[in-house]
UniProtKB/TrEMBL annotation:
This is Amidase signature enzyme. InterPro entries: Amidase_dom, AS_sf. Residues 56-508 form the Amidase domain. Gene3D superfamilies: Amidase signature (AS) domain. PANTHER family: AMIDASE, OS04G0183300 PROTEIN. Keywords: Signal. It comes from the Eukaryota. It comes from Coniochaeta ligniaria NRRL 30616. Residues 1-24 form the signal peptide. Transmembrane segments: none annotated.
Amino acid sequence: MARLGNLLAAASAIWLGITSVASGATVKGKPFPDLIDVTIDDLASGLSSGLFTSVDLVNAYVARIAQVNPILHAVLEVNPDALAIAADLDAKRAAGTTLGPLHGIPILLKDNIATADKMNNTAGSFALLGAKVPRDSTLVAKLRKAGAIILGKTNLSQWANYRSSNSSNGWTAIGGQTYGAYYPNMDPSGSSSGSGVSSSIGLALAALGSETSGSIVSPSQKGNLVGIKPTVGLTSRYLVIPISSHQDTVGPMARTVKDAAIILQAIAGRDRHDNYTSAIPFDCDKMPDYVAALDANGLAGARIGVPYNALSANGSPTEMAAFWAAVKTMQDAGATIVSANFTVPSPNTTSIVLGADFVSDLAAYLSELTYNPNNVHSLADVRAFTRSFPAEQFPDRNTATWDAALALGYNNTDVRFWNDLQRNYYFGGEGGMLGAIARNGLDALVMPTSQSAGRAAVVGAPIVTLPLGFYPGNWPVTRSSRGLVTSGPKVPFGLSFLGAKFSEETLLKLAYAYEQKTLTRVNGPKPYIVPNVEIGDFAGF
Ligand SMILES: *[C@@H]1O[C@H](CO)[C@@H](O)[C@H](O)[C@H]1NC(C)=O
Ligand SMILES: *[C@@H]1O[C@H](CO)[C@@H](O)[C@H](O)[C@H]1NC(C)=O
Ligand SMILES: *[C@@H]1O[C@H](CO)[C@@H](O)[C@H](O)[C@H]1NC(C)=O
Ligand SMILES: *[C@@H]1O[C@H](CO)[C@@H](O)[C@H](O)[C@H]1NC(C)=O
Ligand SMILES: *[C@@H]1O[C@H](CO)[C@@H](O)[C@H](O)[C@H]1NC(C)=O
Ligand SMILES: *[C@@H]1O[C@H](CO)[C@@H](O)[C@H](O)[C@H]1NC(C)=O
Ligand SMILES: CC(=O)N[C@H]1CO[C@H](CO)[C@@H](O)[C@@H]1O
């Protein structure tokens, strides 16, 4: 039973704008980490020792969502079956069965990853509200098999930021505007906005996001998080609302490298429903062990490249100073730092690949629906719906991205698409990061996360981002066109390790070593808004 007084006190503290960081939390009198800091290992040991149950955990997370969602709009839906699933997993555990490393652990999903249950999968659009899929997305099936509780769906930039040229990060017609937790009215970045915010303040253990170009790494950095943007094809996209089959990928957004690695392990692997997964170079039953790869001394002997000529001359001096300090930290930890310039320092990244893919890939997703309440079968249908449905806020938020995709007049089966795709592969490959890695025999490249996404995106290569630093407490506030705070006091930024395709094991090893040396997240400033309901408010009553 929730302690109502406690909940109300917490809610009013938040309304008054008081930072309410709980500390020294206990469960049944025993010290236990706050849910903003808790790890999978912490939860697994609390669950297996009987300190609390998954039902307690779901109750605590649902109460936390209720505390902050009226302000942050990070969560779109809570799974109405979450408590029943938790009770079932508690019963299995009591009977001696654990399904896997995520047994009884609540995870949130970006609202473009479909589940065959009572929840919707909308990309934040009323066009898809009420639509049904034939089965769980492969990712979700794998999470359930590992024992995870799908706690709910997170808000996002609508259509994963593939609709409008003048919308805002984290806005959807269904969920409204998501805000980041490190400063009032903060731009959460996107498009996995709600996943980043939820993971940053512990509305679940972690969340999944998706990335076409920057949509995991960018909101991860704004949430002071570890984000893995896997190689395209390492994780299945079946029944994930697409932008681009050539660039889309799904990965974890978590608070520690180890938690992110555990979740990646659960979701990686081949899927006959997604042909790109057949590029996985490992034997089916011999996927890498991403958790065993973690090594606190993993930087010793590593060759790390810095693409000097691809770093932006306009990069923030605060971020760049932190970046060069991080490079020095890696060197001090035994890494060899190599100058690894790109042969094409600033490519023309104007490309029709996403637009042409979207025309084909969206139609393919819609054709999978077993119930399609608004009868949308193509991009043209979705565009017509959006422009005529008032809550979609057209024309204040336009459909310029779709207008351009449709104006192409062709899709990704056309030879003109092939030309552009090859050009992209050159910019990301020989002319960009993959060429620099191969020529210099590197384990990874490093870049500030705000500059890392584009080159990896066009070639489907992986990135692991983790906390690098924060803007100083007296930093002036800057705002985007719709008034969101884009930078300001204590707003976090990240460091990216970029690697060859399917090199996640190496990237995670390096990121873990850097994390353990620096502990930037735990030592840094806390969000301005943190729910203060903890497991102890539920366990033992
Ligand atoms: C999904 O959308 C339908 C239609 O609006 C709504 O009735 C239902 O409550 C939603 N599901 C959840 C879990 O919120
Ligand atoms: C995968 O490729 C095969 C052969 O090209 C094709 O028949 C099949 O439809 C593809 N499957 C998907 C899910 O795209
Ligand atoms: C790499 O690029 C930087 C910046 O453009 C330049 O100063 C440096 O000389 C280049 N290094 C090599 C080895 O070409
Ligand atoms: C950039 O690429 C696009 C797409 O191929 C092309 O239309 C445009 O002319 C190019 N721009 C420049 C400056 O080369
Ligand atoms: C893609 O283009 C081909 C060739 O014009 C066409 O036959 C096909 O219907 C198009 N597919 C979609 C989803 O628009
Ligand atoms: C967004 O763009 C459309 C035109 O494409 C315009 O009508 C609308 O006013 C713009 N909204 C804002 C807030 O600028
Ligand atoms: C779970 C939850 O709080 N959902 C909310 C998402 O945002 C919309 C619009 O702001 C609310 O109506 C929902 O209640």
